[in-house]
Amino acid sequence: MGKTFKRPEALSENHTHYCPGCTHGVIHRLIAEVIDELGIRGRMVGIAPVGCAVLAYNYFTFDFQEAAHGRAPAMATGIKRVRPDLMVFTYQGDGDLASIGMGEIIHAANRGEKFTTIFVNNTVYGMTGGQMAPTTMPGQRTTTSPFGRNVEDCGMPIRMAELLSSLATPAYITRQTVIKPKYIVKTKKAIKQAFAYQMERKCFSFVEVVSTCPTNWGMTPVEAVKWTEETLLSYYKLGEYKKPE
Amino acid sequence: MGKTFKRPEALSENHTHYCPGCTHGVIHRLIAEVIDELGIRGRMVGIAPVGCAVLAYNYFTFDFQEAAHGRAPAMATGIKRVRPDLMVFTYQGDGDLASIGMGEIIHAANRGEKFTTIFVNNTVYGMTGGQMAPTTMPGQRTTTSPFGRNVEDCGMPIRMAELLSSLATPAYITRQTVIKPKYIVKTKKAIKQAFAYQMERKCFSFVEVVSTCPTNWGMTPVEAVKWTEETLLSYYKLGEYKKPE
Amino acid sequence: MAYKYHIEVDRCKGCGLCVTVCPKNVLEISDKVNTKGYFPAYQARPDDCIFCTTCCIMCPDVAINITETAEPAEKRVGEGA
Amino acid sequence: MAYKYHIEVDRCKGCGLCVTVCPKNVLEISDKVNTKGYFPAYQARPDDCIFCTTCCIMCPDVAINITETAEPAEKRVGEGA
Amino acid sequence: MQSEVMFAGFGGQGILMSGKILAHAALTKGFEVAWIPSYGPEMRGGTAYCTVVISDRPIGSPIIKNPMHLVAMNRPSLEKFAHVVKPEGVILINSSLCSVTSGRSDIDELIVPVSDIAIELGTVKAANIVALGAFVTRSKIIDYELLKEAVKEEFAAKEKLIPLEMEALERGKKAALQ
Amino acid sequence: MQSEVMFAGFGGQGILMSGKILAHAALTKGFEVAWIPSYGPEMRGGTAYCTVVISDRPIGSPIIKNPMHLVAMNRPSLEKFAHVVKPEGVILINSSLCSVTSGRSDIDELIVPVSDIAIELGTVKAANIVALGAFVTRSKIIDYELLKEAVKEEFAAKEKLIPLEMEALERGKKAALQ
Amino acid sequence: MGKKVLMKGNEAIGEAAIRAGCLNYFAYPITPQSEVAEYLSRRMPEVGGVFVQGESEVAVSYMLFGAAGCGERVFTTSSSPGISLMSEGISYVAGAQCPVVFVNIIRGGPGLGGILPSQGDYFQATKGGGHGDYRMLVMAPASVQEAVEMVMMAFPLAEKYRNPIMLLGDGLIGQMMEPVEFPDHLRTEPTNKDAWATNGMDTRKSSKPNIVKSLYLDPKQLNDHNLLLKSKYEQMKREEIRYEPYNTDSDYKVLIVSYGTMSRVCRTAIDNMKAEGFEVGMVRPQTLFPFPEKAVHDAAVKESCKVVISIEMSMGQMVEDVDRCVKGKRPVEWYGKCGGDVPTPEEVMGVVKALI
Amino acid sequence: MGKKVLMKGNEAIGEAAIRAGCLNYFAYPITPQSEVAEYLSRRMPEVGGVFVQGESEVAVSYMLFGAAGCGERVFTTSSSPGISLMSEGISYVAGAQCPVVFVNIIRGGPGLGGILPSQGDYFQATKGGGHGDYRMLVMAPASVQEAVEMVMMAFPLAEKYRNPIMLLGDGLIGQMMEPVEFPDHLRTEPTNKDAWATNGMDTRKSSKPNIVKSLYLDPKQLNDHNLLLKSKYEQMKREEIRYEPYNTDSDYKVLIVSYGTMSRVCRTAIDNMKAEGFEVGMVRPQTLFPFPEKAVHDAAVKESCKVVISIEMSMGQMVEDVDRCVKGKRPVEWYGKCGGDVPTPEEVMGVVKALI
Ligand SMILES: Cc1ncc(C[n+]2csc(CCOP(=O)(O)OP(=O)(O)O)c2C)c(N)n1
Ligand SMILES: Cc1ncc(C[n+]2csc(CCOP(=O)(O)OP(=O)(O)O)c2C)c(N)n1
Ligand code: SF4
Ligand code: SF4
Ligand code: SF4
Ligand code: SF4
Ligand code: SF4
Ligand code: SF4
Ligand SMILES: [Mg+2]
Ligand SMILES: [Mg+2]
Asked: How far is the CA of E45 from the centre of ligand 10 (A)?
């Protein structure tokens, strides 16, 4: 009744630069596993964001481009339009996708570009030292909201899955998390589904992953998991928000 | 039982450069009437877009700034933050607001900036010669969609009122039209309501106005009204989408 | 109470929208060009006008106004300002 | 069928997530620093391990793997690659 | 030898097309040509104009402030541009929409009710072709037959219109010869 | 006269704070000072370091490749930086986390188990202050009393910690004098 | 050589790209270049190419980057404010060494400015509007025909250098119709980009991933990377300088340096002055970067030449380069106008004659 | 003069703005300047000021524009890629004549580049990254104290010229801690902007609307507008040039031109060489635009001086301006490095000695 577990081929041997307990690593692995299972490594192009995952290309074993901050969806559009046979995903943080890159993600989703976006929502700007993001929770302290996010000034956190789902163009949109194994299994299914829609050239696909940033939250990884479950998941509700057809 | 009608004070004497039958003129007048009625001309700052209304400052009798294409909401944010006592509105076309300026309008709305946006949706880029906009209808021919908007490539038209309403931050969001007097009366009420929320510093307010562009649609003004009513209003449904509280 | 109806000829762009919305079918498009090269609207049947301002509300160029006047109502087409 | 359980010590960042998710309470954090300066996880109670891979699934650094082996199960803590 | 023609009128009068046809005709003959539109803010509402330069050597400055000839399709155009035309040039005035003249005695003034003629032919849209026929006939800037070919080519996609346009050309020519 | 100290260790060891306190102390005495952090990609995980320059005249180049002294709070730092220290400088080695020595005979090597001392005092977090006490005592780069004041000022907001930090300084000093 | 057809500059530019073998176009409308997009929205489907109207110039610049990064020929057209929005993207494209062709049909600035012809973006194009040490090869056509040829040349050049290339036109070049032909010999095959492009490992039958990026966190690596880029720019200076001398055989007293539309006006002025017995020479840079430094210098120091003047539809930009080349050996003057009111030959004649 | 406090460059810059009377800050985080935002997110609420983290640098540039347009003092800080994204906005701000202070803490480029100190944005800042004919007054501090003073001077200067002003620092200036004091005499009152700002007609008790705009559709008006802008830039050249000579009393054989962090390294190198008996002079531009043309020229042509060298943390940018000023009278060399690996004094000494 035991099982085996090994490093997927699509993941490189390099050690990551991520902080202990950072869920970026889990998400990387899931993507790699899905790519292995679908056998598409030879026609993959990943797009690294500007954010903690900026060096993502060091951790996979297929082609990568590195976008400017927020512009990964435009880059992916460029690739998919000229090479529809390639499989393309963007990997973006919440600062990247929900703040500076808001225009790009909405328009790519609305045009129905046939690529996949993995959206890593950790409610802060991880790489630059924990500044407030559009997804930061009300009252959450960050380096640029030292007194806690003030809703009166900064508004409510943006829920990207819901926002994108309100567009009329068909898409696959889901929100998952990777803070516990049970969720991780579901997230992997979602990523696989997203890639499958892309392979069928059916629609744009979007997997939001509620993630942790222990370092900038000032918590241990275990505390971060707990806070995520208790605080984030009631605002960022998991589930499938939109399916094509 | 007769009534009088005169040019509002907030409107200048200048003749507009708009094409015959273009509804930009109607919307200008309504804004001016509301400003007169609220007695706020002396603390108004309008923001002209880049689009057919780029010269809007010639047609009003209060302070104006001219934004870059799409950036009026950022400009309005700058003004309202440093001078919350001023009354500010942006006047934006659909190319301006829904294409290049998508990021700015979403974020201003989400922060709950206390200004008003008048969004003139005429489904094309009027000023530059009738190119396709994000709001162009499926199949609609424009100078850059000569075979009609292809939904497979360009996606469905974006409904800004709905999109903005899906944000969690409170706001006043409504869609109106000015193609007939009965609608015009309602639009004026909506604009007045929007300004009232701003005066109370309650929330961001947004009035989408479904408009015509006879010139670039290749129609007479009367045909344009008819096409709007028959085609646009069933996709761009009129009504109040969101109210604060 | 009497009203004075007035179309500023040179502001009018002849779009014809006022013509279509007048409940009393008062208005028509002139066949004389104005200084801007447009054919302006005018009250073809001024006596039918009920001063409802519907045309004023519709006009994108604010070319029409209706004022109150002490004297008996005067209505002229395309009168100068 | 037997399994070999292996934590790559120098990959492990000692985040402790595997420890919390193990259904059999097999894992603990070591008090010996690895070459990167982290205190890695190890199987404190290897015999309790049921090779369910839960810890592998959780580990953000893919530091744990479980392989099938013909020989009887070997379990060692922090074994090198 | 270089000559220039400015076509001016309201937007919608086919001003740009007139210029294009003339440039086309000249090109066929092997001339160097340049067609320069006005694309300023005047586009909407005000006057539209374009300039065609025809030359037997490479064209230097494409910016022509003083053209040799003017085709004025309405009154504002005439008023705006009559004084910039070089002495001895042709000024065609569309008298249907313009009751005044250029007031210049050093040019060759050609007054033709081009819009009325076009309306007689069945559509005011042909006015620009009437004007072209008249202008080319009078100025001899290119061969009239070349012009005819160029008009045919321009309307190749709307073949049904060709007889009408030929008639328009002829009526223009006739007016110029009167 | 100018001297420079490099503080190096893991992130989280209070490296940047040590430098800041030293710079502060020197500033109080009227010296010119500059504190230069490493803010590269090493920030996360790898080594963190900063350099403090103390001088009696305006400081020219703030980029110091060969500092006078080194405080190495862990082994990678010692390995990375031991060879760049100028001859006759002090190298403090945190022997709690570093079992090797600098291997240099032209410098003044000071081996102190700073982390262990700090743990004895109740918190490993005080290790940087232990190191500071030891380093300043040995190098005499500034007056020890000035350092004491600077530490007090640094912890002014967390007054409760001051006795502990004073103790840490003293233990460092003692270790340096042994 | 095909036959001569009369075409608007903007349409000819679009067609030239197709003839050059580039079937991918991403753009955002802006006067005075929107006709390129309008033309290609019809033309690309005919030739099986890609036409995408992006949501903004910022997005377009990254669409180009993505497409070029995976090895396909790609180009865009825009005008001044749109190019400013692409500055970050251009810097990225240069940093990641991707071949992209940018066309800027300049309009009056700064800010919203106006829509008439201008040359106010000279600095932006030649000194890098974006951040960091990069350069673009910048070409400036003076006619529709030359625009066609430069567009066609741009693609292989971009690939030769793996670098962005910019064509700097102005509103007049875009809006004017002139006869053009599309030289067959300028149609080129895209180069093989397997060595670096992210075209999919299967496509190039390789198991080594390609990475397209501009990040070099290690300072030594970033310096080396910049030295590599610099060596490309030095190579451009050796191999790609293009210019056209005009009336430089004469014993000219004044040397004009002028490019694009402005140089045509100057040509007419020079012809007119020659007819009057007043000799004026001109060097017309066809590449603005690399700038024809030696040509300008040598023409300036000719015995007969007393003064050099940079005539621009801008407020004194190219004159700095001219000044630099002349090395103090002749006085360097500037004349310019911007905003769309192109100086006339008569105006130029007045200015030039006043110099002597 | 207050007392000296030890502050990080980034924090000192934030505090300096407040001390200068600017209570409005809009920005987007980016290494290596995020500490300015972090500092001001705490500090602004204390002083009743405005702190807004914008959604992007593009948006921030227009928030600044709006705020400045209605007459309030306002500033931002960013780093290279962020400044590129502001290019369009800067051009608009210049075109509409609004006083805005921009701080660029340069990092390595092009593209994403790196986060360590660099001077690769010299061209972008001095020749206008945005489109059209505009210039910014550009100041380059060499220490935290100088950064403070320049920030404080920037606001009244921006208002004097109704023009954007840029402070060009580098990662080191931002990250380093040095002792600073905030000179009281540099605290200034904002000027009265009733004549042009959209501060509301009631505010200024006027019935004449003010319009803040950069559009001039009429070419003559746009040309006149550009001439007006040009006259401001000419005035800056007359009134605002700042530079610091170093060791120029000596009979130096080599003249270094260098600015910012790089100039401090050169200063140490010059001191060291002096100790060895080898005299080297330096002109350190404190304003990069207007560039100290005469100072550099005059220092270059000093009898003893054999060669001029521009030493930059960039691949040859300022050297073009130096070359232009020297007018061929001395050979002009360049040395530079970029990517964050700041050249050491020893390296500079090696390079300089090799020149002779
Ligand atoms: C144009 C631009 N602006 C800002 C930055 C600085 N920057 C780098 S990453 C980042 C935010 C990263 O946050 P997020 O996208 O949430 O990713 P995370 O690090 O949290 O995974 C920012 C602001 C940049 N590189 N470029
Ligand atoms: C950065 C930039 N890109 C493009 C343009 C060109 N442009 C001017 S107006 C406009 C579109 C206007 O359309 P819309 O906003 O719908 O307004 P309308 O004219 O229809 O009222 C465009 C693309 C510009 N001025 N600036
Ligand atoms: S900073 Fe946060 S997001 Fe970035 S690697 Fe560390 S924990 Fe992960
Ligand atoms: S082009 Fe369209 S939107 Fe613009 S003025 Fe004319 S009708 Fe109105
Ligand atoms: S006022 Fe009423 S009745 Fe009179 S013309 Fe106007 S719409 Fe007709
Ligand atoms: S609605 Fe106004 S502009 Fe249109 S025809 Fe009537 S009066 Fe004239
Ligand atoms: S495989 Fe299962 S039982 Fe064994 S250590 Fe991992 S989680 Fe625990
Ligand atoms: S989850 Fe992985 S990295 Fe974390 S402690 Fe366990 S083995 Fe180590
Ligand atoms: Mg994040
Ligand atoms: Mg529109």
From this structure: 18
Last residue within a domain, chosen from G193, G219, G239: G239
Q: Are residues H171 and H155 in the same domain?
A: yes
Strands E108-112 and E47-55, sheet pairing: unpaired
Q: Do residues G195 and G247 both lie within one domain?
A: no
Contact H319, G230 (CB under 8 A): no
- Report the C-alpha gap between G71 and A85 in whole angstroms: 14
Of A1, E39, A134, residue with least CA distance to D23: A1
Total domains in chain G come to 2
Distance CA A47, CA A56 (A): 8
Write the pLDDT tens digit of every residue in A42-74. Answer: 999 999 999 999 999 999 999 999 999 999 999
Q: Do G37 and G89 sit in the same domain of this protein? A: yes
Residues of F in contact with D36 (CB under 8 A): 45
Same domain, G264 and G347: yes
Nearest CA owner, ligand 8 atom 2: D59
What is the distance between the alpha carbons of residues B238 and C13, in angstroms, rounded to a whole number? 28
Beta bridge partners of G135: none
- List, in sequence order, the alpha helices (H) in H249-326: 260-275, 293-300, 318-326
Rounded mean pLDDT, F135-140: 97
* Identity of residue C8: E
Show the domain range for H62: 5-239
Q: What is the domain-level CATH number for residue G306? A: 3.40.50.920
Q: Which of H204, H239, H274 is the last residue of a domain?
A: H239
Interface contact flag, F41 A19, Cβ < 8 Å? no
Selecting from F33, F41, F61 the residue whose C-beta is nearest the C-beta of H264 gives: F61
Q: Which residue in the set G92, G209, G212 is minimally distant from A61, CB to CB?
A: G209
Closest-CA residue of H relative to G92 is H111
Determine the structural domain holding residue F138 and report its residue range: 2-177
Q: Collect all residues of chain A within an 8 Å Cβ-Cβ radius of residue D10.
A: 15
* Whether residues H247 and H177 fall in one domain: no
DSSP H66-108: HHHHTT---EEEE-HHHHHHTHHHHHHHHHTT---EEEEEEBS
Print the domain residue range for A64: 24-242
Please give the Cα distance from G37 to G59 (Å, whole number): 16
Taking an 8 Å cut-off on Cβ atoms, the answer to whether D15 and A18 are in contact is no
Residue nearest to atom 2 of ligand 4 (CA): B213
G216-263 confidence digits (pLDDT tens)? 999 999 999 999 999 999 999 999 999 999 999 999 999 999 999 999
What secondary structure letter does DSSP report for A45? E
| Ligand 7 nearest-atom number relative to CA D50 | 3
CA separation, residue G188 to residues D23, E60, G73, G166 (Å): 64, 31, 11, 18
pLDDT recorded at residue G118: 96
Closest residue by Cα to atom 7, ligand 2, is G30
Q: Are residues H208 and H301 in the same domain?
A: no
| Residues facing B240 on adjacent strands | B174
Answer whether B70 contacts ligand 2 (Cβ < 6 A): no
Domain assignment present for A147: yes
Residue F41 forms contact with G (CB below 8 Å): yes
d(CA H244, CA B171) in angstroms, rounded, equals 55
Query: Residue F147 maps to which CATH number?
Result: 3.40.920.10
Tally of domains in chain F: 1
CATH number at residue A155: 3.40.50.970
Cβ within 8 Å of G, E 62-91: 62-63, 65
pLDDT, mean of each 10-residue run, chain C (81 residues): 93 97 98 84 98 98 94 50 37
Q: Is B218 on the interface with E (CB under 8 A)?
A: no
Whether G110 and G175 have beta carbons less than 8 Å apart is answered as: no
Nearest to H29 among A102, A128, A146 (CB): A128
Residue H102: both structure tokens together: 């921009």
